[in-house]
């Protein structure tokens, strides 16, 4: 199984208490927007491109920087699934627009963060990451 690299984004609307999720038809589950890194594309550029393509939402990446310019990922996950052996470089962002409009025919929703625990359709890993990111970044 060939290793593949992707970038994804936890888009959090801190004002309304929502996280942007999309239904991945290949994996049959709700996940954060993201996709494969193309060619020599930087992961940060993949993250921005994929959120726009999959949701129509414009975002601003937030997070830690080493040089006050380049945003560092909040997590890097390695997992194997039906798509392949994946390395997922994960970022956090805030929405600059909120109206969902996608061309990829995905189900995309703003999901209330306070309802994550009660949802059986969202994996525990995503629930934990979102709640931890809200704690860490809501004070900024």
CATH architecture tag: Alpha-Beta Complex
Q: For this structure, what is the CATH homologous superfamily?
A: Nucleoside Triphosphate Pyrophosphohydrolase
Q: Profile the largest sheet.
A: 8 strands, mixed
Number of DSSP strands? 8
What do the pLDDT scores average to? 91
**Principal-axes shape call:** globular
Binned, the helix content reads 10-25%
DSSP summary: helix tally = 2
How much is the radius of gyration in Å?
Answer: 14 Å
Beta-strand content bin: 35-45%
What structural class do the secondary elements suggest? alpha+beta
Distance between the termini: 41 Å
Helix and strand sequence: EEEEHEEEEH
Provide the CATH top-level class: Alpha Beta
Would you spell out the secondary-structure blueprint of this structure?
Blueprint (H helix, E strand, L loop, with lengths): L2 E11 L4 E7 L4 E3 L2 E3 L6 H13 L3 E4 L12 E6 L4 E11 L12 E5 L11 H14 L3
Parallel strand pairs: 1-7
Antiparallel strand pairs: 1-2, 1-4, 2-3, 2-8, 5-7, 6-7
Could you please describe the fold and organization of this structure?
The protein has 140 residues and is α+β, with helices and mostly antiparallel strands. It has one domain (3-137): Nucleoside Triphosphate Pyrophosphohydrolase (Alpha-Beta Complex). 19% of the residues lie in helices and 36% in strands. The chain is built from two helices and eight strands. It has helices spanning 43-55, 124-137, and strands at residues 3-13, 18-24, 29-31, 34-36, 59-62, 75-80, 85-95, 108-112. Strands 1, 2, 3, 4, 5, 6, 7 and 8 form an eight-stranded mixed beta sheet that branches. It is globular and about 40 Å long. It starts with a strand and ends with a helix. The mean pLDDT is 91.
